[in-house]
Amino acid sequence: MALSQELSPLRQLPGPARLVLTVFLLAVGLGYLAALVQLHLQDSRGGTLLPTVADVILKYTGKQWLETAPPPAVSQLERLIMGPIEGVPWNGTGSMAAAFFHKDGAGFKREYEQADEATKERLMAERNGEREALRLWIRLEDDAQRRAAYEADRFVPPPEAAPKIITPHYRDPDGAIKVRSILTDRCARCHAAGAEQENYPLETYDQIAKYLVVPPTPVVPPGGGWVSVATPISLEKLAQSTHAHLLSFAVLFSATGFLFALTGYPALVRYLLAPAVLLALVADVSLWWLARLSDHYGPYFAMIIPLTGGIAGTALVLQILLTTFHLYTARGKTILACLLLLAVIFGTAVYVQYVQPALQAKRIQPHAAKLVDTTSERGRNN
Ligand code: HEC
């Protein structure tokens, strides 16, 4: 039954045809690599190469496994002001914290870069003081009191909680803080009529109040459970991604599978590996929908997605390598092996030189921003 190596139809193709097939397989491999890069950029949140299982569950279900009650939900304004300085998107779902630092439009970056360590520390503390003061103001229970403090540009924080250090310019001699000035300088610079973000103005208390609504804190069942913490992927986006995957990738993976089926490897291997990428792709896409639509079992379906994705990737790499090697005689195989070795060395070098440091930096930044936060928290408590 099994085609012998020499008699397989692929081996009988003329040289130029085999060359085209080789380049085709190489292109599919590179395309797949690009798809992985896109997956990293789109879905990986915490500085991992590929999205983690938790990332995937969050994407398709909007849920997270929580054992204890999450910290109380905060208003969008507080979240954007107190969020990380770097490493998250610069928009309403990410953080606007950089507006107090290198995006202050007033030379913080230049000053910080030229400063000595002590000055750097002071600058950071001053800017964090602004954020801390705003947080205290945002958390005032009484809306009328909050509004009055804004209108008068005078917010008197409780002395025990007041930030110890704040940009001097924003503190009156009696300790009152100019919250309105801070919001105007740091935020309304962009969020104002005629400015870059005039669609989202933050020039008056009423405009700002829209972002002061505190959403309900999710309820965690006793013993832990899957809790909705974010909006899952929209159905439109899922439909579009499904269509792209099933139509274009199905054609590509049929081609790679078909070529592998025509090689001279043992029949059993070909039966298993040739349709594997396609099958895993269909399973993967089905799981997206099951995860998105099933309220109860969604997270469990989502957990399998990395597995089907992994099977598809492994099977594709095997198909490409095995088919390419099969196309050539012993001498061609040796050359291919050398080229492959070079590619692996090059890939490893690129990874160590560029990819790893970039991931490392992504992992450290949110953490560093947190450190800044906890320091100011400590300042507040003592
Ligand atoms: C350098 C310009 C700039 C500064 C300064 C700035 N932002 Fe933004 N802001 C943006 C951009 C850009 C977006 C994304 C807009 C979009 O999604 O189209 C945004 C979005 C927002 C949104 C979401 C609007 C919505 O309804 O979707 C809020 C709220 C916000 N910023 C608050 C702030 C606050 C608070 C500050 C001050 C701490 C601030 N911004 C400082 C540029 C700026």
- Report the average pLDDT across residues: 87
Helix and strand element order: HHEHHHHHHEHHHHH
List unreliable stretches of 5+ residues: 1-5, 366-382
Largest sheet: 2 strands, antiparallel
Structure description:
This protein has 382 residues and is mainly α. The chain folds into 2 domains: 15-62 and 233-364; 74-215, no CATH class. The chain is built from 13 helices and 2 strands; from the N terminus they run ααβααααααβααααα. It has helices at residues 15-43, 53-61, 76-82, 108-114, 117-138, 143-152, 179-188, 205-209, 235-261, 267-273, 276-293, 298-326, 330-381, and strands spanning 63-66, 225-228. Helix 1 runs antiparallel to helix 12 (298-326), helix 2 (53-61) crosses helix 12 (298-326) and helix 9 packs parallel to helix 12. The longest helix has 52 residues, at 330-381. Heme C (HEC) is lined by residues 76-77, 80-81, 90-92, 96, 99, 103, 186-187, 189-191, 196-197, 200, 202, 211.
Keywords:
382 residues, mainly alpha, 2 domains, disordered N terminus, binds heme C
